[in-house]
Amino acid sequence: MSISITGLGIVSAIGMNLDENLNSLQNLKSGISNIDLINELQENFLGGEIKLTNQELSLIAFGKDQPEVLPRSLLLSLIAAKQAWGENNISPKIKTVIIGATTVGGMDLVEKILEKDVRIQLLAHNPSGIITDYLADYFHLDEFKTTISTACSSAANAIILGSRMIKNGLADRVLVGGGDALTKFTVNGFNSLRIYDTDFCKPFDNNRKGLNLGEAAAYIVLENKKSMAITKNKKVASILGWGNANDAYHQTASSPNGEGAQKAMQLALDEAKLSSKDIDYINAHGTATPNNDLSEGRAIEKLFGQKQLFSSTKAFTGHTLAAAGIIELIYSILSIKNNTIFPTLNHNALMPELKITPVTNIIENITVNTVLSNSFGFGGNNATIIIGK
Amino acid sequence: MAFIHKYSTISKGNTFNQGIIDCCINSKIATDITHPDYKDVIAGINLRRMSVIVKMGLANTIKCSSKNKIDAIVVATGLASLHNSELFLSALLDPRQHILSPTPFVNSVHNTISGEIALHTQNKGYNITYSQGSLSFEGALLDSILLTKEGKNVIVGGVDEAIPPLDNLSAKIKSKEKLTTGSTFFNVSPNKNGSLAEIVNCIITKEKKANYYITDNFNSNEDVLISGHSTCNHSKKINTLNYSKFSGIFMSNPAFGLQLAVELLNANITELDGCKLPSKIKRIFIINHASKNDIGIIILRK
To answer: Is the same domain home to A376 and A255?
Structure first.
């Protein structure tokens, strides 16, 4: 069963479409800056903020003024999903489902309502499903819809579900993705855990202090052969394998040896019928928290050996939570398409615990056929996806 | 094929120990959630810092666990821990609070429930959380059907909690009733032997398509329809049981409806709550109307 990726859409702090994102990656242009669109954050925070107001995003999404007040995550998701969906049409011959991913949902509106002290009407905007509900109606997708919320691995798990639905004949075409805006809730939340770096985040660096959050949304279209015969869409890349495993170690932290990460990566290799030697590049989760990078680094070293090429693109975009799994999958596709490995920015000092070294300078003119992308989250959640040409 | 082997509900009345029908037939429906004594189920050392929603999910999981290894934990929750969301929001918006405790933040994350279940049962398998408003459970159940196709032994359940001032949200999901707290979990596996029921289908679709589907497939001589809403469109023509009347309203309560259906398939009763039942029930349709424009349909047979 082949699962083809035929449409891509992405908005992040380094660009409002695929070309802009590629351009920033190639020119090593990070999108991390002072967060200034969220009112009354009690401290200054660095983050991957998209420098457009909700009104400006709304104008991009709808092409005109939109009176309805919509959550920022929804606006970002709609812009990305429209790019991915492109000229696709609904057809009774193609069973099309939509799968979303978010952690914050409409939390930004909840916060605004609370600030005005109208109290708890709030939580009506909180359900994670509101984004998928809106997109399903917008694109007239009425077969099946759901939203996955597994913290920072949400979008990766959404792609895994979409792939499994196609593999098992429950869907022909899947619009799948995720989006998370920056909110007070998440910025303060990660800060309360003392894993928010006050400086630019430094993935896989010995002096890493923590993450910078970011905001982004991305969607892709997955199709089987039957669907592609009707849509005539062209394959951009293929989903080859996936794995989901739990660390069962700690509520928020990863196990020191990355047991769950190893298991997720091994499951993905097994599903793809590949061995570790077949992976040309790993786009790591690499959040720049002391815990994640050590755990993930050890897991990569154990499974793939000391020479494995890997990097984290989090220093370009910030950690975009539920969207991370899909924006990094799209960056992995850009690596394959452009024969390029994008580097880990802000890296100065090797971690003494690891024998592996992240890619810290851009590598061009390198053949990249197969990429493994990791997304790990709270609750011990580990998700891995392997893509190929 | 997906077969249900065990179930467990924490709801109004002593459903945890007696099941749903026993609590309904005896008409002793409590007005509020009846928590079991969690100390009897969960090791005390773990209980102290656990939020209510995690306790419910974990106690139900433990009760549904089989001798066979559990390969996957699938949780549906519409709103996750509202108690913790509200705590953290209030603290961060309070200008007097300069240092925030991370505990309510961590506990408010949707997949804290599935994650804590994995942690406390030391389950390192597939782990996932679905949150699609009132259709959260149908997503989780569809994944469970897929997992059984992949040969996996699954724990799947729904859990939501109410916090006092939620009347506006109740209005949003078309209900004048107060939201309640509740949780139902199942053990679902590909193994038919000793099973209580088989999940035939799980669908989410628009109302019009759902109506066609039910008209085409439902046979009132041998099938039973149970619905989450008393004003269900189909109830005009078809004798309908309303599961929300017993569970109260919460986003993942189709899981409660599913347990009621499993119990009905295995009980020898001819009537429940004024609804006459066929002498031998062939299939039960569980219809969920709680979402604005979409219908969830779960079909079950013995």
So the answer is: yes
Task: Provide the token pair at B165.
Answer: 């001032």
Nearest one of A151, A153, A62 to A382, comparing CA atoms = A153
Is the predicted pLDDT of residue B168 greater than 90, yes or no? no
Whether residue A280 sits in one domain with residue A182: no
- Are residue A273 and residue A318 in the same domain, yes or no? yes
Mean pLDDT check: name the lowest of A225-229, A315-319, B92-96: B92-96
- Asked whether the beta carbons of residue A251 and residue B165 sit closer than 8 angstroms, the reply is no
Q: What percent of chain A has pLDDT over 90?
A: 89
Residues 160-179 of A with CB under 8 A from B: 161, 164-165, 168, 170
Contact flag A146-B135 (C-beta cutoff 8 Å): yes
Does residue B159 sit in the same domain as residue B31? yes
DSSP string, B103-140: HHHHHHSTTHHHHHHHHHHT--SEEEEE--GGGHHHHH
Same domain, A247 and A296: yes
pLDDT at res. B97: 76
Catalytic residue among A125, A152, A201, A347: A152
Which of A125, A201, A285, A347 is labelled catalytic? Answer: A285
pLDDT value of position B25? 75
Q: Measuring CA to CA, which residue among A158, A159, A141 is closest to residue A149?
A: A158
- Mean residue pLDDT of chain A comes to 94
Residue A250 shares a structural domain with residue A101: no
Domain with residue A274: its CATH number is: 3.40.47.10
Is the same domain home to B8 and B151?
yes
B128 & B207 share domain: no
Residue A86, pLDDT above cutoff 80 = yes
Domain count, chain B: 2
- Is residue A201 flagged as an active site residue? no
For the four alpha carbons of A40, A42, A43 and A49, in that order, the dihedral sign comes to negative
A140 is catalytic: no
Residue A341 is classified by DSSP as B
Residues B210 and B291 placed together within one structural domain of the fold: yes
pLDDT at A292: 96
pLDDT tens for B90-105 read 888 887 877 899 999 9
Closest residue on chain A to B292 (Cα) = A133
Mutation target vs B (from A45, A154, A188, A266; most B CBs, 10 A cutoff): A188
Residue A121: the pLDDT is 47
The structure's pTM equals 0.96
Total domains in chain A come to 2
Considering only the beta carbons, identify the residue of A124, A246, A380 that sits closest to B169. A124
**Interface membership of A121 toward B (CB under 8 Å):** yes
Considering the domain architecture, whether residues A60 and A165 belong to the same structural domain is answered as yes
User: What's the domain range around B230?
Assistant: 197-301
Residues B160, B166: Cα–Cα separation, whole Å:
13
Domain that holds residue A102: 3-231
Of B162, B189, B216, the residue at which a domain comes to its end is: B189
Q: Any catalytic annotation for residue A125?
A: no
CA-CA distance, A85 to A268, in Å (whole number)? 27
- The answer to whether residue A236 sits within a structural domain is no
Q: How far apart are CA B130 and CA B68, in angstroms?
A: 24
Tell me if chain B has a CB within 8 Å of the CB of A54.
Answer: no
Q: Are residues A154 and A193 in the same domain?
A: yes
Closest CA to B251 of B96, B60, B75, B102: B75
**How many residue contacts between A and B have a Cβ separation below 8 Å?**
189
**Within this chain, do residues B64 and B179 fall inside the same structural domain, yes or no?**
yes
Rounded CA gap, B202 and B299, in Å?
6
Whether A216 and A257 map to the same domain: the answer is no
pLDDT in tens, A351-385: 999 999 999 999 999 999 999 999 999 999 999 99
> A262 — contact with chain B (CB < 8 Å)?
no
